[in-house]
Design goal:
Length: 49
């Protein structure tokens, strides 16, 4: 059985999948979830989508 690790989304810079564990800050703004996480490839904060 495969275990899927939860992902926040793809890095807008390089397209890498950003794991949920890399999240730096997450909040709700105007009803939408906004999350910033450190991309494993860019090694800098990005907003996954
Ligand atoms: Zn990236």
């Amino acid at each position: 059985m495969a275990t899927e690790s939860e992902s926040l989304g793809a890095c807008p810079e390089c397209g890498a999948s950003v794991p949920r564990g890399a999240v730096l800050v997450e909040y709700e703004r105007e009803g939408a979830r906004v999350a910033y996480a450190e991309c494993p490839d860019c090694v800098e904060p990005v907003r996954p989508r």
